[in-house]
Write a structure and sequence with these properties.
By secondary structure, the protein is mainly beta. The protein is about 5% helix and about 30% strand. It is built from seven helices and 61 strands.
């Protein structure tokens, strides 16, 4: 075993030995490369990071010349004697009082604003204090207005290819109209950005401003919003916020003018507190091999990050409709948006680490990523995703697979980009996602997706990731996507070999208190993925948010998924327990008492035909007669209606605590349609469903139907951590 050492007060001219430590991670990487170049090494090389802050000003890139191999393990290990912290924070030390007549600042704050100057060209989107991040200046919510009296093409120079939404007036991707007084005239609006939840409430954008015309009350954005700007259901009183202008500065917030490299801060006390830092990097460490997806593959191997703390990163500046976003632009394809990135990496790991107070995400596994592990980490107070597995777009390149993400604690993530999931699996398969505790998120906890808009111009969502050569070889020359609610399984089977989010095992995850900001989201979401995904033994609840949509959702064009043994309970809003828009299996699940009447039922069947679906051995428990057990509908246009009668549905238990007679009526209605002949109406036999204890008593009626008791102690992993 070879040991090297780094300490914050070391010297890069040292040897790296225990008594002669290096100072920087970059010197350690160079020393590692030098050592490996001198001789072949077996066993393990450990780079020990002493307690303290290890500062990065450039991303540390570890390439093939730094990598291990079958017989060589390389570990960057933090100390057991104190936190080994990796940070890109720039200390802010030289503060002066800004002039009392500083333009755009309110009279109430005159004389209270301080200023410091950073190196020219510095980009600052995050500011940190000794204990937490400090918010950027943000104004009150703005209600967008429709463009009137002008042609849609004149509404903005940047309207996007999705066109304009006609149901709420003429709306634009590239601008909006505001009411009188919603935005103050200010000299620094060229530095401002707008936080926008567009008409589609499952996405948000942070977009720079080109101009503000106060006569027309019209904002023109420098980048296109993912969707037309409108009024989403999750923010009916205002869905746009002006940020980074002195006109909206408040005590405890800040503004950065990149043109002058000046940062303005209005402290809540008399002077800026000690220990303020600006984040400078979005990506700290990248493990990067070589991969030509059609040819040579040389992934970096056997490098491990253990017991390290990552903090104070900058926010990733991803803008809107570019074709390189993945699923609704929730993240970006092949981008430096997380503090640790494994790109073309194999058999590497990130274990026992902490990722906190960062503007970017935690860990990305990009493109070629196989056999890697992300285990036992904590992700909290991050601007983007906790963990992202991002493969190649629709293609023959099934190279992101076989990774493990387990036993992580993920909470309070997505603090800048509110739509970011806790764990995001996109075009990545055969992964094991297990035992994670995910809570207090603005949007969905776990996403498994391969959703694509097949736009040959490469502008619409995800379309820039498509390998059109492979697509046409698989689906035919000149392939045109047949919309999913008409094509059903036929077109899905044609494309399925190119949909790599397949055969993932998602189990024993505890999800609660999600969907705290955005709308139309879920506990676990599977959409546009390949077949063979198994979602079993997960607990989703309580989730009291009024915008909670579904506990588990098989969304558009999703087939051949197994949903087994999950507990879904205490859902808020009008949340559905499970939604199906395709041919899938729903077995041995508990649909527990909701907090409010589900809009569409515990189980919502939304697109047909569902022939081949199995719905068996489930428990549907409701607390009032207006809480549906199962609903059938046609969710889109004139597509096929979903019918329970087309499925294999039987041996289910129905019970309404307020009216068992109502449950008997429900079951008789189902049986009249030709289903559920062996299903039962009976009190299920839970220990205390109203109190959240869904343990079955030994003589429970549900057992007589073949229901198998759930391993609740293992599923509710978060109960011990609360």
């Amino acid at each position: 075993m070879i040991n090297f050492h780094i300490t914050p007060d070391g010297d890069d001219n040292n040897s790296g030995a225990e008594g002669s430590p290096w100072k920087t991670l970059h010197r350690a990487a160079a020393g590692l490369k030098e050592h490996l170049a001198r001789k072949e090494a077996d066993g393990e090389i450990i780079i020990h990071l002493a307690p303290g802050v290890h500062t990065l000003r450039e991303t540390l890139i570890l390439g093939l010349e730094h990598g291990g191999g079958k017989n060589l393990k390389i570990t960057f290990r933090g100390s057991d004697k104190g936190a080994s912290i990796i940070s890109s924070g720039i200390p802010l030390l030289q503060w002066t009082k800004a002039p009392a007549d500083l333009p755009d600042v309110s009279k109430e704050l005159a004389g209270r604003v301080w200023v410091t100057e950073l190196p020219r060209g510095t980009r600052v989107n995050t500011l940190y204090g000794p204990k937490d991040s400090i918010p950027r200046a943000r104004g009150r919510a703005i209600q967008p207005q429709t463009f009137t009296g002008i042609k849609p093409e004149d509404a903005s120079p940047n309207y996007g290819p999705n066109g304009f939404a006609g149901d709420r007036g003429t709306l634009s991707h590239g601008g909006f109209v505001f009411t009188e007084g919603a935005i103050d005239r200010a000299q620094d609006l060229a530095e401002a950005e707008f936080v926008i939840i567009p008409k589609m409430q499952w996405t948000m954008n942070i977009l720079p401003c080109t101009s503000v015309d106060f006569d027309k009350r019209q904002v023109t954005l420098a980048e296109n919003c993912t969707y037309p700007i409108g009024i989403p259901h999750c923010a009916p009183d205002g869905s746009i916020w002006l940020e980074n202008s002195l006109s909206v500065l408040k005590p405890g917030s800040w503004v950065y003018h990149r043109a002058t490299s000046r940062l303005y801060y209005c402290p809540e006390g008399d002077a800026p507190e000690a220990g303020l830092e600006a984040g400078s990097l979005t990506e700290y460490i990248r493990l990067e091999g070589v991969c030509d997806p059609r040819g040579h593959k040389a992934p970096i191997e056997n490098i491990h990050l253990e017991k390290l703390s990552f903090t104070c990163s900058n926010r990733f500046a991803f803008h809107g409709l570019t074709g390189k976003g993945i699923q609704h632009d929730w993240e970006m394809h092949d981008a430096p948006s997380s503090m640790v990135r494994l790109r073309h990496a194999q058999n590497c790991s990130v274990t026992g680490c902490t990722f906190e107070h960062g503007g970017s995400g935690g860990v990305r596994l990009d493109l070629y990523a196989q056999g890697n592990r992300v285990e036992g980490n904590t992700f909290r107070n991050l601007g983007m995703c906790g963990v992202l597995l991002c493969g190649y777009g629709p293609s023959r390149h099934y190279l992101n697979r076989g990774n493990t993400v387990r036993d992580n604690h993920i909470h309070h993530i997505g603090e800048h980009y509110w739509h970011c999931p806790g764990i995001f699996i996109w075009q990545s398969g055969d992964n094991h996602i297990a035992g994670n505790h995910i809570h207090d998120t603005p949007y969905t906890a776990i996403v498994c997706s391969g959703r694509i808009l097949y736009d040959r111009s490469g502008i619409q969502e995800c379309s820039g990731t498509i390998d059109w050569v492979d697509l046409e070889e698989q689906c035919g020359k000149g392939y045109v996507y047949n919309i999913w609610w008409y094509s059903g399984l036929t077109d899905w089977w044609k494309r399925e070999p190119l949909l790599h989010a397949r055969e993932n095992l998602i189990e024993y995850n505890h999800i609660h208190d999600v969907m705290q900001v955005m709308g139309d989201g879920n506990g676990i979401y599977i959409s546009g993925a390949g077949g063979g995904n198994v979602v079993r033994f997960n607990a989703v609840g309580p989730c009291p948010s009024p915008t909670m949509s579904e506990g588990i959702r098989c969304d558009d064009d999703q087939h051949h998924t197994i949903l087994h043994g999950n507990l879904i309970f205490a859902q808020g809003g009008t949340a559905t327990g499970i939604t199906l828009k395709g041919v899938n299996r729903v077995t041995n699940n508990i649909f527990g008492l909701p907090l409010c009447p589900p809009k569409r039922g515990h189980l919502s069947l939304e697109t047909g035909p569902l022939n081949g679906s199995v719905i068996k051995h489930n428990i549907f428990l409701t607390g009032a007669t207006d809480q549906k057990a199962i609903s059938e509908m046609r969710i889109h246009g004139t597509g096929r209606k979903a019918r329970l009668a087309d499925t294999d549905s039987d041996h289910n238990l129905f019970y309404c605590t307020a009216s068992p007679a109502h449950s008997r009526d429900v079951l008789e209605q189902l049986q009249s349609l030709g289903t559920d002949y062996h299903s039962l109406v009976a009190e299920p036999g839970f220990v205390d469903a109203a109190g959240g204890d869904y343990t079955l008593k030994p003589n429970a009626a549900a057992l007589s139907l073949g229901f198998k008791p759930l391993p609740l102690e293992k599923m509710l992993v978060g109960r011990k951590k609360r």
